[in-house]
């Protein structure tokens, strides 16, 4: 069994819970509260900057030239996507540049981005790669799972089309081929650390969407 097959099997129950989150189900139905989606878009734009940094470090640690190209190009694309959010979803949903720049990272986003950057700098290439995989793979699988249930004239159809689309899924396929090739040369201890990194990333994906749905923020001193 390849690493990707094994890690997906180990975390399949968590994926099903992620797919069943109200955010994803209501997004497919077109009934997701606009404020929740706007909250998500702002946090996702913040997240993608940190994700791009982690991808760049992953590329720097890669074992060969093709992998360096793959992940440094991925870092560039993460930043391009972040910027396109300003011209796309943010414009469509009335989110101003000032709104974005003055909205701090939420607890879930801060936790997730801190995990990715800390892992990127402190761990080996295979473990860094495993930590980054959930963002690629889970988004693609959610997109494919909900595209057929998305309602006509869904206000969130552009999001569904992005992550169910051929271009994004081809990129995910290439990352899976890379991680399986890398895992095949790793020892048992490294493989286990890869599993742990993937699972933590998958848990944080769940918390990111759940936090967006409930629009969770940091507690103020008065709320503690």
TrEMBL record:
GO cellular component term, pick one: cytosol
EC number: 3.5.99.2
Tagged with keyword Hydrolase: yes
Keyword Chaperone applies: no
Major enzyme class: hydrolase
Domain Thiaminase-2/PQQC: 22-214
GO molecular function: thiaminase activity
Catalytic activity from the UniProt record: 4-amino-5-aminomethyl-2-methylpyrimidine + H2O = 4-amino-5-hydroxymethyl-2-methylpyrimidine + NH4(+); thiamine + H2O = 5-(2-hydroxyethyl)-4-methylthiazole + 4-amino-5-hydroxymethyl-2-methylpyrimidine + H(+)
Keyword line: Hydrolase, Thiamine biosynthesis
Pfam families with a match to the protein in the record: TENA_THI-4
Alphabetical GO biological process terms: thiamine biosynthetic process; thiamine diphosphate biosynthetic process
Pathway annotation from the record: Cofactor biosynthesis; thiamine diphosphate biosynthesis
Matching NCBIfam families: salvage_TenA
Function: Catalyzes an amino-pyrimidine hydrolysis reaction at the C5' of the pyrimidine moiety of thiamine compounds, a reaction that is part of a thiamine salvage pathway.
Family stated for the protein in its record: Belongs to the TenA family.
Name under which the protein is recorded: Aminopyrimidine aminohydrolase
Record organism: Acinetobacter defluvii
Gene from which the chain derives: tenA
């Amino acid at each position: 069994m390849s690493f990707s097959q094994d890690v997906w099997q180990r975390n399949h129950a968590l994926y099903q819970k992620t797919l069943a989150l109200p955010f994803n189900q209501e997004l497919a139905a077109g009934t997701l509260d606009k404020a929740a989606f706007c909250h998500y878009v702002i946090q996702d734009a913040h997240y993608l900057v940190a994700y791009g940094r982690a991808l760049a470090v992953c590329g720097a640690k890669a074992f060969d030239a093709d992998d360096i190209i793959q992940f440094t190009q991925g870092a560039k694309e993460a930043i391009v996507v972040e910027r396109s959010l300003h011209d796309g979803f943010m414009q469509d949903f009335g989110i101003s540049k000032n709104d974005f720049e003055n909205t701090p990272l939420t607890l879930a986003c801060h936790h997730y981005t801190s995990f990715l950057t800390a892992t990127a700098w402190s761990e080996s290439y295979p473990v860094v790669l495993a930590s980054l995989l959930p963002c690629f793979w889970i988004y693609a699988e959610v997109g494919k799972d909900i595209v057929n249930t998305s309602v006509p004239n869904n206000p969130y159809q552009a999001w569904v089309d992005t992550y169910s689309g051929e271009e994004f899924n081809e990129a995910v396929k290439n990352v899976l081929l890379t991680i399986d090739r890398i895992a095949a040369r790793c020892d048992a201890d490294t493989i286990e650390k890869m599993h742990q990194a993937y699972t933590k990333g998958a848990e944080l994906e769940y918390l990111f969407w759940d936090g967006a749905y409930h629009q969770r923020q940091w507690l103020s001193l008065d709320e503690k």
